[in-house]
Design brief:
The chain has about 375 residues and is an alpha/beta fold. Helices cover about 45% and strands about 15% of the residues.
């Protein structure tokens, strides 16, 4: 029997549960493409943030003990990390990177300019990208959240043209086994993910975050009045989501929050991710602020309304050709438009044109187009 392929996977495994969903959609596909058994070793990227590990020669030696290295998926080509030698979260010095001898796959990474793009980061990342694109040892891909356009804008068209587009693997996350076999016999559910990080961007047009929470509570209250059979499940993806969930609960009518609202358990890792995915799978409608609270429900053919407070979400829907499913929540008064859009998605989503099925068809084609490049890299 052939020896398994030993793969080191550097990514987030104990952070945002959307990352776990991403890996659930990625690893089975990678194993299928490799045509052999894969032995995975997970290395939490936060160990570098926590200073428990360093991007040093010892790491290079450790990496070289494997057959392949996969980095991501995740938002690791963000362009604001000024103290990094690459300008990104992958803060590996050039001399250390050159000591890595095995093939390296940069797997559907985000290129995020939302928190600023210092000139120094552009220069360093351009140098890093030139190294990556200049050798078959490296396979570079970015995800379908506007990353290629961001590369073109901030780094240059010639670099964007050489970089592969690969859909986020959350689009391929398997549907949880716990989904009811007969959807007609389950409770009707609207699942909602709201986020409070990057408040200086998300809430800059509100007098304070509480004003936003009041507006979100107003939207939930109006939906509850219009749909008396509905339950509302608030789904945190990271610990900071609990802050704004709590604020929004405090703004709801007391009877509503005591009788028709649930908050999903907070946690990290695969188990927590599966629990939240099960909620999305059973929902009639999902309202999502975070990237994977939009992507994963689409994978399960759920109706999704994108709560647009960050450019990444807007670019995701633009890439899918589904801008009409976005709700701008960056200004007071969004609850009225939100009620209209949510009502249409619940009653007659076909009038909006493309939906979840078309989104999955689109990203499946993107992934199929990429597969020959992955097979070539695997054979190297």
């Amino acid at each position: 029997m052939a020896r398994p392929m030993n793969v080191l996977h550097i990514a987030s495994f104990n952070g945002n549960i959307g990352d776990n969903a991403n890996h659930m959609g990625f690893r089975p596909w990678f194993e299928k493409m490799s045509g052999t058994q894969v032995k995975w070793t997970s290395l939490e990227i936060r160990e570098f943030y926590w200073k428990e590990r360093l991007w040093d020669d010892d790491l290079a030696d450790y990496i070289n003990s494997f057959d392949r290295l996969v980095i991501g998926g995740g938002n690791y080509f963000e362009l604001w990390v000024e103290n990094s030698p690459t300008g990104t979260s992958i803060a590996i010095p050039s001399d250390v990177f050159q000591k890595i001898r095995i093939p390296v796959f940069f797997n559907a990474l985000g290129v995020d300019p939302g928190q600023g793009v210092p000139e120094a980061c552009c220069v360093r990342f351009t140098e890093f990208l030139e190294t990556l694109l200049g050798s078959d040892q490296y396979l570079v891909s970015v995800r379908n959240d506007g990353a290629l356009g961001n590369l073109k804008t901030h780094i240059g068209k010639q670099y964007a043209d050489q970089t592969n587009l690969l859909p986020d693997h959350g689009f391929f996350v398997p549907c949880p086994a716990g989904e009811p076999e007969n959807p007609d016999n389950r409770s009707r559910i609207i699942a909602i993910n709201i986020a409070s990080d990057m408040g200086e961007i998300r809430f800059k047009n509100f007098s304070n975050r509480l004003e936003f929470s009041n507006e979100m509570a107003s939207l939930i209250g109006q939906l509850a009045h219009q749909n008396p059979e509905m339950e509302f499940h608030l789904v945190p993806h990271i610990f900071r989501d609990l802050e704004i969930i709590s604020e929004t609960l405090s703004c709801l009518d007391d009877r509503l929050r005591r009788t028709r609202v649930r908050v999903a358990a907070y946690g990290s890792g695969d188990i927590a991710a599966r629990n939240s995915l099960a909620i999305y799978a059973s929902a009639d409608l999902v309202l999502g602020m975070r990237f994977h609270s939009n992507v994963c429900p689409m994978a399960m053919k759920r109706q999704v309304m994108g709560l647009n407070s960050y450019v990444q979400i807007e670019q995701l829907y633009e890439g899918l050709g589904q801008r009409e499913r976005l709700l701008d929540i960056t200004r007071p008064g969004f609850s009225e438009a939100g009620l209209q859009l949510a009502s249409q998605l619940l009653l007659d989503p076909d009038q909006l044109g493309k939906g979840p099925a078309e989104a999955i068809e689109h990203v499946t084609c993107l992934r199929n187009e990429f597969e020959p490049r992955l097979k070539h890299w695997l054979a190297g």
